[in-house]
């Protein structure tokens, strides 16, 4: 079949559709692009009305994508960075909070906002300073001294509240099930009886709005850190990389130290933290760090994405080997 015999239709003239058309044309194939609106651009379009700029949509673009770096002119797009924080509207007032270690201007608004207790903010900042191992030690000392001066304003009630919370700390059991969905568990309406899982769900906390990836280790990286998977090295898991992306920042194939894991926070809070089962987030020959480097007290299981208990690191048992 000759190239001109291909009949390809691309639905939508957004960034992805335009890049797809460009790549095809570079290979001598000329597709038909179908766009419902009056011009291409998708959500990255702006109208000028009476001197005002009106954006068609809200677009978050991760500039670390290799394809984005190759095909997009970031300067022409006039991209704007997000401030690492949140604007919360409460009682008809706006309160801004965020991480002052990433943006110093958020320090005072965060400390003196009425979102969360003052003592909790001090503890979170202290943990962040320790974990990120800031290179500028004078800046870290300055923040610590400021917090020390502010700590005098913490009331006795706040101290007693923290002590009571320490006494009531619960035991936490976190289970990650590969290749199952909400509909597979009885607690969420499955026709399959899962009585043990149902008892855990009924006695615990149910997540109903968690973003999962189609593959296990990528989802686990988000669950462990609360970050987008590309921010912590798992743009894809270790043996499914698109070749041009391998080694690019965000595509290391193992969990990087660009974020703090929940296991580290639990360890810092005085918990004994144990892991059982598959890790598949790096360590030793896989690159990255094994579980004991992530705050776990002990771990029982395997490092790789699949193995068994009969012959080391093999995906399936070798039944021809009696050992």
Number of strands: 8
**Secondary structure category:** alpha/beta
| Multimerization status | single chain
Q: What integer is the average pLDDT? A: 77
Distinct helical segment count:
10
Q: Beta-strand percentage?
A: 5-15%
C-alpha end-to-end distance: 53 Å
Overall description:
The chain is of the alpha/beta class and 323 residues long. It is 29% helix and 11% strand. It contains ten helices and eight strands. The protein has helices spanning 15-26, 66-71, 74-77, 107-111, 118-132, 137-151, 156-167, 195-203, 216-225, 262-268; strands spanning 9-11, 32-34, 46-49, 52-55, 85-90, 93-98, 274-278, 298-302. The strands form four sheets. A two-stranded parallel ribbon has the order 1-2. The chain has a two-stranded antiparallel ribbon with strand order 3-4. Helix 5 (118-132) runs antiparallel to helix 6 (137-151). The longest helix has 15 residues, at 118-132. The radius of gyration is 25 Å and the shape is globular. Residues 134-138 have low confidence and may be disordered.
